[in-house]
Amino acid sequence: MLAAGGVAANQCRGAATPERPNILFIYTDDHSYRTISAYPEAYPWVRTPNIDRLAKRGVRFTAAYNGAWCMPSRATLLTGHHQFGVESMRMVGEYPGSAYDPGKCPFWPKVFRAKGYFTAQIGKWHTGTDTGFGRDWDFQLVWNRPKYTATSTHYYYDQPITHHGGKTEILKRYSTDQYTDWAVDFIRGNGRSKDKPWYLWLCYGAVHGPYTPAERHKQELQGVDFDTPADIFPPRPGKPDWAQKVEHWRRGPNGTPMSGGRTLNSWVRQYHQGVFALDEAVARLTATLERTGQLKNTVVIFTSDQGLAFGQHGFRGTKIAAYDANIRSPLIFSMPGRIPEGRVCNTPAGGVDLVPTMFRFAGIDTPWEMHGRDLSPLLENPDAEWQYPVMLAATGRSFGSDTNVIPQGKDAFHGDVPWYVMLRERHLKYVRPLVHDLEELYDLRADPEELNNLAVKPEHQATLARLRGATIAELRRTKAGFVDRMPAVREAIPRGA
């Protein structure tokens, strides 16, 4: 059983124990579940033996929805709230400049610090120029993208890294390797208190664009091939008007999909090459836990901010949209002896669920009302009945009460995609656009590629109405300010049909 919260647990001090474990939270970037060979949806030539080994030593969730793009997914993982509940977070100045008021938008790692954990963050930061060192983090080696906007695209080399709130130095090494070196050193005990359990949020920049692989991997995956996604080119029957306008690809010689002067094959190959260093990183991190005798006292969580589509539904290197190809993340929990090994959980999870789950592991009561649910029952029994849906609300670059009034026209879009609310209930997915357009409804068991929109089929109107109501109920439960201001959906089926 996972440790319950409570006063006794909260007052506990000392190094990690199985009841009060270390937490290693590995967070990759734009990293689709399709790039991991433990997932059956991966191409047959994908190989990630070390991430697969992590899954074999724990529970792999088939689907996770942590966010629609980098900033809100991270804000969710720092607050336990959906994007519309992250008060005072806002974009300011040149992208990705952003800011927040820590009084209105507290980050939960400071609670772990107060309750005896040593907290650390390494790598990418995308939620305000204030990275929280000394308040939320005891230890921090951070690439502060919102502060250093001129280098915000330097995902792999030449990043300005700020050391523990002090000096900032330019990183010349390949970032995935350097972040891993720092994390290994931290796990070994350098730079941290050895008489406290620790929490490390390790935020890689890979495999975000420009998808630069390490030099040692640039010749990998020669000759790979795969089927072109069925709806890479419009029209896309049954889909909303906005989805018909997504055209990131053109037909090249022999009908080959081309974008930016390159073939679909070359884009996908390079994207997957960038995953090799991440897989090697997982091997080094888990080996260090074993060598230092911390494996049994450390829960390892592996996930990403969201996925990335290449060709599916016409997108190229795009997240944001509610399709699994765009936003579905991998999710693995591993702690041999505490979590079942080699199990698969078919219940979908959300980023809002990860925070209360980590509090449960730590034996600490959550400090405020969280939007998600503790996943501990599913980690104890991955086949357990689960009555809760997963919701994700994508409100562009707006957060908190700034989302209370839904904008109109082009302001209601983030790139190609309008604001929306998605609800996943077991194998069914419902999407309500926050513009006047068609809803979407997919049976992911029968239609995993999300090509057949059941919302436009007369025989599925009862299911559509039920999930529409369930979505509104979940928005009310989580106090979404826009719940009573959503534009009417465009009816695909005449009333009474």
Description:
With 497 residues, this protein is an alpha/beta fold. It folds into 2 domains: 334 residues, Alkaline Phosphatase, subunit A (3-Layer(aba) Sandwich), CATH 3.40.720; 87 residues, Arylsulfatase, C-terminal domain (2-Layer Sandwich), CATH 3.30.1120. It is built from 12 helices and 24 strands. Strands 1, 2, 5, 6, 7, 8, 9, 13, 16, 17 and 18 form an 11-stranded mixed sheet that branches. Helix 2 crosses helix 8, helix 3 runs parallel beside helix 10 and helix 5 runs parallel beside helix 8. The protein is globular, with a radius of gyration of 22 Å.
**Care to count the β-strands?**
24
Straight-line N-to-C gap: 51 Å
Beta-strand residue percentage: 15-25%
Helical content, roughly?
A: 10-25%
CATH architecture of the largest domain: 3-Layer(aba) Sandwich
Q: Provide the number of structural domains.
A: 2
Short characterization:
This protein has 497 residues and is α/β, with parallel strands linked by helices. The chain has helices at 7-10, 49-56, 70-79, 109-114, 175-188, 241-244, 264-273, 275-291, 324-327, 351-362, 376-380, 461-477; strands at 22-28, 58-65, 90-91, 98-99, 118-125, 139-144, 159-163, 168-171, 198-203, 250-251, 257-259, 262-263, 298-304, 309-310, 316-318, 329-334, 343-345, 349-350, 390-394, 413-414, 417-418, 420-425, 428-433, 440-443. It has 2 domains: 7-217 and 263-385, 3-Layer(aba) Sandwich (Alkaline Phosphatase, subunit A), CATH 3.40.720; 391-477, 2-Layer Sandwich (Arylsulfatase, C-terminal domain).
